[in-house]
Design a protein that fits this description.
With 229 residues, the chain is an alpha/beta fold. The protein contains ten helices and six strands, in the order αααβαααβααβαββαβ. The protein folds into two domains: 30 residues, no CATH class; 190 residues, Rossmann fold. It comes from Palleniella muris.
Length: 229
Amino acid sequence: MNLRSIKDAIFPRTCLCCGRRLMPAERHVCLGCVAGMARPSPHTDPRDSRLARMFWNTFPVEGVAVAFQYVPDDVVHGIISRMKYYRPDADLCRYAGQLMAQEEVPARILAEGEVLLPVPVTPSRRRKRGFNQSEELCRGISEVTGLPAVMDVFTRQEYTVSQASTAHHRKTGNAGGFLLGDIGCLTERHVVLIDDIITTGATVRACLETLRDIPGIKISVLAFCRTQR
């Protein structure tokens, strides 16, 4: 009996969604719950989807995809809640990234990408949660795909800018407090911007506004899930 089996016998691990006891090969969520997660149509074209068109006025993205659909009180809801709010778990985020990379529609974007770039969080959010969930998603995706993740070039300040000055900050490339460091690793590259959840798209737009002037950059967007609107 290996160490994991001994630990499971003494401290049984359970599915965070249904509460069923996990098998040794399962992590965080049982295979039954994973199979039941709501997904977009496999026929979705990331280059010309309704989701991609949300961002065309900001930047001509190469494609936009989500791995799953967010439905209140379902499995995806449970995972997102644990990723961000209720007992945040970095390993769960990495596992969620692995799930993303194995989904059909996201895989099309990742196959063309060259660099993974997480949406940054403010320092206070990182301190409170203990990590940036998008960075952990990137680590999980990288484990499956081998794509490198750039963690220290794209950052975010504490956002205290008033609505009246938002236009000014957008013009100066600092919408939402996003900042860029050395852009050499993003220049002339196809960057896949990784986020946890897309709702109105405002965060992604602010990121695109900051990234769009990098010479030769191509950008695709991939999120764990999207709310239904």
